[in-house]
Amino acid sequence: MSKVQTTPIRVGFIGLNPDSHWAATAHLPALKALSDRYQIVGVANSSLASSQRTAEALGLPHAFASAQELAASPEIDLVIVTVKVPYHRELVTAALAAGKHVYCEWPLGNGLAEARELTALAAAKGVVAAAGTQARAAVEIEHLAKLIADGYVGKVLSTTLIGSGGNWAGQCIAEHAYLFDTANGATMQAIPLAHTFAAVKDVLGPFGDLSARFVSNFDKVTLAETGETAPKDAPDQVLIHGTMESGAAVAVHYRGGVSRGTNLLWEINGTEGDIQVTADLGHAQMVQLTLRGARGDATEMESLMPSAEAYAGWPEDALVRNVTRMYARLADDIQNGTHTVPSFQDAVALHEVIDAIETSARASS
């Protein structure tokens, strides 16, 4: 049983810069949209000076010298971890050891073993532990899941997914160079593909057997600021085929960079109809998704977007809206004892899929 809380949830951030990065662009506006349920009270960055700068800029009462100090503070109920993947295990462990609720950005761990370790610790501590697979909270994904469950396409025969990763091609900014080192656990298959797979599973059910092949067209990445190069061993082409547990066929191609054509196309084909999901990038968790479909005797696709009422009261920006909806679920779970937010257990299941894909790709190389 997790702890139930009725007062506003006091938040401590590990890794928060007030004017840049994911925490500032997505998490801060999301929490502000739920200011009746959350209160940001403290921050711990890489140094006390950095924590103090952020706390002063945002008007926070507490700047902590370390993540451990933040986690141990009685002023903190929920610890949010929004740093690079290699640091997740250490920082999440500190928060859980202190008995705090945790929201950790995806990937939960640097690989399956770390994710399993953190999940076991969260269960032992009896806290609410959320993993940031926010595509699962998208209005469009919830609507799509209902369309499939209600039989819009009939029996699902196949699904096809094409996506652009944005990064993982031949060039990047220096800050993103760590993404190109497989050892850091922040590859294309671990981030945009996995985020999108989390939504696919919610709509179509669990994955079955999958086979994969990875291709790398570049062994170095050029840093945009200087023209210098850094080593690259992460794949820039991810090819997957297999089946869902239901028996439906699956075909996936994720490619590095962006395309001048299609950057996200997810098709679901069934005995009675077809649905297309499109977007401007292969990160389903952070872009506006567009749904179109046709069934029966129809020969042209039409809009299948959720009603305007489904968006009422949520932020307009899809990136912020999805994170806000995650935090709403998390608040429900902390304050009411429910189980609605994507959990560490869910994250382990997703890590298992990605691990299976990587294992298959190694075997085929």
Automatic annotation (TrEMBL):
Lineage top rank: taxon: Bacteria
Gene3D superfamilies named in the record: Dihydrodipicolinate Reductase, domain 2 (3.30.360.10), NAD(P)-binding Rossmann-like Domain (3.40.50.720)
Stretches assigned to the Gal80p-like C-terminal domain: 141-278
Residue ranges of domain Gfo/Idh/MocA-like oxidoreductase N-terminal in the record: 9-131
Protein name per UniProt: Gfo/Idh/MocA family oxidoreductase
Source species taxonomy: Bacteria, Pseudomonadati, Verrucomicrobiota, Opitutia, Opitutales
